[in-house]
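Try this one yourself first.
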């Protein structure tokens, strides 16, 4: 299954239109570990990306759509999460140069590029209790998948969900969450949770 740019933009828009319904959940999770601004970041970022994608011309390429999304998300709210995700999308746009549709290989390329940029800019790795702890294992699931798109996405969601639960036992090593040290144990990572909610919103959008 391959998705052309126009359909990709429509699916992303539908996904991001529902993701802000989790803003309160993300705010509460983030407040337990940091400054509690993740809900606002996701809410503002989603609105900005939707607006940016709508402003693109119909013939916009995948790379241009990712650039627009990355710039919009990173500037919508001055937070570390916004900068990391936005920077990741900008890095991913380079992998889509000259490509007209997204299938499994392209989705994996985008995901790996986002993860690599987050790791680089955030100076983080697996086990640091960040979004990477859900993102990277779910991409491994994507790479190993042989089923339909729906089956693959369901497997990625299951993996991400397991990993979000696993972050509860970890101590935060990065950002404001690291300041609370051992008190961060017992709380799931907010960024990893936001990624899980995005995957769930993506599944709902694809089912529409």
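Now uncover the answer:
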């Amino acid at each position: 299954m391959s998705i052309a740019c126009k359909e990709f933009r429509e699916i992303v828009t539908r996904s991001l239109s529902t993701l802000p319904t989790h803003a309160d959940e993300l705010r509460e999770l983030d407040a337990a570990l940091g400054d509690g601004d993740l809900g606002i970041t996701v809410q503002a970022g989603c609105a900005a990306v939707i607006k940016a994608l709508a402003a693109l011309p119909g013939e916009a390429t995948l790379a241009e759509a990712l650039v627009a999304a990355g710039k919009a998300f990173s500037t919508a709210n001055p937070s570390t999460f916004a900068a990391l995700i936005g920077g990741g999308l900008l890095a991913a746009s380079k992998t889509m140069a000259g490509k007209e549709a997204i299938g499994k290989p392209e989705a994996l390329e985008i995901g790996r590029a986002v993860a690599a940029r987050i790791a680089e800019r955030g100076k983080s790795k697996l086990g640091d209790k960040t979004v990477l702890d859900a993102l990277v294992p779910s991409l491994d699931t994507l790479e190993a998948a042989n089923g339909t798109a729906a089956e693959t996405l369901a497997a990625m969601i299951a993996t991400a969900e397991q990993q979000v639960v696993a972050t509860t036992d970890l101590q935060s090593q990065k950002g404001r969450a690291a300041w609370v040290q051992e008190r961060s144990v017992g709380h799931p990572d907010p960024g990893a949770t936001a990624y899980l909610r995005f995957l769930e919103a993506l599944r709902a959008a694809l089912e529409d």
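Discussion: The mean pLDDT is 91. The two ends are 16 Å apart (CA to CA).
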